[in-house]
């Protein structure tokens, strides 16, 4: 857990770089589309693509998660995910818990953080899903107006070319054109680990 906490802290500091800059656009030039109905979202997800950054390029080779529970109803509801980080160096995977709560600032905008730190509101995230193959999460620094990281989770740990094209179309629809890198989830022990949870 210590490494997970350290990564979380480093990521938090990274998000708040130049946090005192003044900008008008708190959506980082993106065009959020619709709120997510968590009751329709598939349970199991693998981080398949990301915008290059030191954490996922050098430390975390794969991230897998499952929708653990949905808390409350209506606009106050939020989704809680349990997952594991898998590492390039072969260290034992570490568990984490994250939640996605509506930011109350328009459709498709969410806050993500650990359940215990819900009020930290690290960044506002633009999220989108097709309810079958992808769940997109783009973190936006509200203070600098810069996109911090693009994360694309898929239900298939080894997405097909068609699934990737669907993801690309969805990103373009959100006005996101960043170059994406692929994780190592397609060959990760995460596949076997999470298959056991499906039984």
Protein model, in words:
- With 199 residues, this protein is α+β, with helices and mostly antiparallel strands.
- The protein has a single domain, classed as Calycin beta-barrel core domain (Lipocalin), CATH 2.40.128.20.
- It has helices spanning 2-15, 54-59, 161-173, 190-198; strands at residues 44-50, 60-71, 78-87, 94-102, 109-113, 124-129, 134-141, 146-154, 181-182.
- A hairpin with a 4-residue loop joins β7 and β8.
- The radius of gyration is 16 Å and the shape is globular.
- It starts with a helix and ends with a helix.
- Residues 3-24 have low confidence and may be disordered.
Topology:
Elements lengths: L1 H14 L28 E7 L3 H6 E12 L6 E10 L6 E9 L6 E5 L10 E6 L4 E8 L4 E9 L6 H13 L7 E2 L7 H9 L1
Antiparallel strand pairs: 1-2, 1-8, 1-9, 2-3, 3-4, 4-5, 5-6, 6-7, 7-8
Q: Can you tell me the residue ranges where pLDDT is under 50 for at least 5 consecutive residues? A: 3-24
Biggest β-sheet: strands ordered side by side in the sheet: 1-2-3-4-5-6-7-8
The proportion of residues forming helix, as a percent range, comes to 10-25%
Summed up, the domain count is 1
| CATH architecture field | Beta Barrel
How many individual β-strands?
9
Sheet with most strands = 8 strands, antiparallel, barrel
CATH-defined superfamily = Calycin beta-barrel core domain
Provide the gyration radius in Å.
Answer: 16 Å
Q: How do the SSEs run, as a string of H and E? A: HEHEEEEEEEHEH
Figure out the total of helices: 4
Shape designation: globular
**In CATH's first tier, which class applies?**
Mainly Beta
Mean pLDDT: 84
> What is the SS-derived class?
alpha+beta
